[in-house]
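Thread: quick sanity check before group meeting

JM: Hey all, I'm pulling together slides for Thursday and realized we never actually wrote out the predicted structure for the chain we discussed last week. Dropping the sequence here so it's in one place. If anyone has concerns about the input, flag it before I start.
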Amino acid sequence: MKKSLFIILVLTVNIVFAQQIVTGVITDETNRPIDSVEISVKNTALKTFTDEEGRYSIEVPEVAATLELTKENFKVQVVEIKKDITNLNITLIASVDFFELSLEELMNVEVVTASKKPENQKIAPATIYVVTEKDIIENGYTDLTNLLENVPGVVAIRTDHFTFGGQRGFLSNFSQTLLLVNGREMQNLFASETFISTQFATHNIKQVEILQGPASALYGANALVGVINIITKNDSSDFNEIQYRTEFGTQGTQAQSIVFGKNINDFRISGSFRYFRSNLWDYKGFVKDTVNFRQGVPSKAFPINQEFKQNSWSLPYAAKISYKGLYVGIEGYELKGSKGLENISLDYINQSDYRQLALYYAGIEKEISAKLKINAELQFYKERFWGVNYTFDNAIYDTLVKNGHNPDSPLTDQEIKDNFLMVYSQQSSSGSKRYKGSIQLDYAPSQTLSIIGGYTFDMFDLLGLSLSTDKLNPSFDETRAIENRMRKPFFRQYKNSLFLQLQKTLFDKLYVTLGGRFDYHNIYKSILTFRSGLVYTPFKKTSIRFLFGQAFREPNIFELGASSAKNVVNELDPARMNTFEVGINQSFTSNLLANIVAYKNIATNFIEPTETGGFINSDNVINVFGIESQLFYKTGNIRTEIGYSYVKKDADDYAGVSTVNLGVYPHRITAGVTFTATDNFTINSRINYYSQIHAKHGNKDITQIITIPDFTKVDVTFSYVKIKVYDAEITTQLLVTNVFDSTIYQPNIRIGGPKQFLQHGRQLFCNLVVKF
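JM (edit): ok, ran it. Output follows.
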């Protein structure tokens, strides 16, 4: 039995009855012309073929006639032409053997993140990597972290609290990256962090678009080195079904989820819910490792029976109702974790972190005319979080020893509770809030010109943290006052933004993009960013990109002085980034494709801490040069993909040494092989290689550069897809991660306590997806 893949072709027919001539153009779903389609008038010998531009003209012998359309490997479609029809859209559905599809057809992907409008990935004015639902299934991706670790130029480091890493040589906690869900920001409010944990799972993902490079001209602050845009199934109008998914695996991992969408004439309702629970990885042996984990920390300080147990769960949810362009929705999550490896904790079992974030939105999307579209939307965010730390502090420990504690004896539970407990909390507060309103106009006066512009008002009303060393739920003071660390006046911030982008096609081969944005913030005032792109397609299978972009990251409330005892606002400017890129996308054959991009980042005004506990804009200019490349090949039932990333970052002076690429992997290779054994059964293997890296010691009390050896990680996924059981379609999966149980260390980028981070060993997961 052959596997079928449905491809939609659109036939536009204009009929002039007086001349009895039918003219039209056949295009694919991305509006590209399709040639070699045979068209005939049924029961006559008259035939015609489309040209290279998909155009045709055919004379019909009668006012009312029947067209028959054929193309090799496509179903024959018969369409009647009636007297009262002057314009006719015909959908030609073709059933093709999956193995006959070329890579060009499989990878003909439409993206929206690069220009805030749909366009083909090959002519998008940005370096953008796309992971589709099909990729997610074949590779066994269960959450955003293991998806990102297979993207060129991206580094994802698991801490089992939230994911550290970044893009193109700028690594931290992804705070230089803007995270979107269906184009709406989903950073946490408190510190504008891209807080990626188990709440961003793949059960509701239709497509992920990872934009590499600055994007502030489109998206404003914090799109410094890139954008991650998650496009969900339930938000897509073509998703009209119910999907139930159950997952279970090692470390007590289990999850249940449901995604649904239903179109009823002009009305649509959709949603997604997931419950996830896991102990994640067991680090019991690692936290007792005085060489690789807690180097520099007195080993005898820890309790004799020190254990590491985690109990993490998450509940992401989404819902949306729309009617004739009007819509309302919600996107949010609740998340509880055990802090993972972020700190060296004296009581792992009782430390915790709890987060709540909800985005409510309502808007209208309207086509004013064939050339003008408008979208207006209001958004309201609400966030609260709280947690408990038992972080080891050398100064406190030295004081305890000075006051009589025997350094040869472990700390008692009471000593830990009395001296190392630190509670941070918004639990008793009303929560931080964000109010955002935007309007966007899309104007296309011709097929070769597109203009997008918009205005955004954005106001944050943030809360600080109530801190306590003895109360698990400390009281919260929401009085707005300069002396109140929980709600200083500058915690309320607002900005107004205007952006404009023009795209023009010249000579059917040259795609020009020019865009700019003006942001005015009540604290750091005005800032301008600019972008430009030139995509040239000299040949049908070749596209060349020349790109320039600017971006900025605005200072968060900590950097502005939230923790300052001086009760002043630090005068900081946003960090800035300029990036130049040149890239080429080449199809050598229909089953051999490659792309390569070279870039240079120039970062200025980076915000750095001072010895006195404040923050300043650095005078240093940071230069990063890099290369990213991908190669795709298909032969028979086997498809392969190889990605390579090279990064060279300016030297840092640290520990008396000048080190290039400090904390940055110079070389990364990610590769995948998919073997389609039968129409329903596939085997996939992912291989990730990380080169040796020199990094700062994760313990802030040790000024030392450590060397972390290179490593290779292998994952294998077995998928049995599209099994028909009555009206349901079932997909089953078995995923084995880190097949060879390799010991893998990655750097502690934020210098949070542990020398380095141990990554997960071998794990086993099973998934069952049922579609109705």
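AS: nice. The two ends are 22 Å apart (CA to CA). Helices lie at 103-106, 133-139, 144-148, 216-219, 284-287, 394-402, 413-420, 557-562.
JM: adding both to the slides.
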